Amino acid sequence: MINKDSLIGQLKEKGLKITPQRLAIIDALVENREAHPGATLIYEEARKKARRVSLSTVYATLKEFSENGLIRQLEFDRMENRYDVDLLDHVNLICNRCGKIFDYAIPASLEPRDIARKSGFVVTDTRLEFHGYCRDCLKRPD
Q: Exposure winner among 20, 69, 74, 108, fewest CB in 10 A?
């Protein structure tokens, strides 16, 4: 599981500066990992720890973290992009009503390494997502 120290270590390994703003953004990412936060939530949470962080700094930092393989950006057509600190292969279950994203372990039959070995296809990245309705939304009347 990714934690704050491992992300800071990865920043150092990649030669990226460790600033108070970046530390606040890392805190927001790690503390809200299960929510797969968007830039708005990350900004709101980071501002609690680093008053001088701006929304543009959050966007630039998330872009840099994503480009350097520290986080995964989840792009969507109809909702704000979200960010995932869990880089292990997993399925994202995305609720069409509330927008929550849940992680689900990939079944053995869909293991990317097995698919690559059997097909000869070199897998460089995976993103598997199912769209539908979460338990909470199914219980709510329309």
A: 108
What's the rounded Cα separation, in Å, for the pair 102 and 75? 15
pLDDT tens, residue order, the chain (142 aa): 678 999 999 999 999 999 999 999 999 999 999 999 999 999 999 999 998 999 999 999 999 999 999 999 999 888 899 999 998 888 899 999 999 999 998 877 777 778 888 888 887 877 889 999 999 999 988 7
Of 136, 69, 125, residue with least CA distance to 102: 136
Q: Using CA atoms in the order 59, 65, 68, 69, what is the torsion angle rounded to 10 degrees?
A: -120
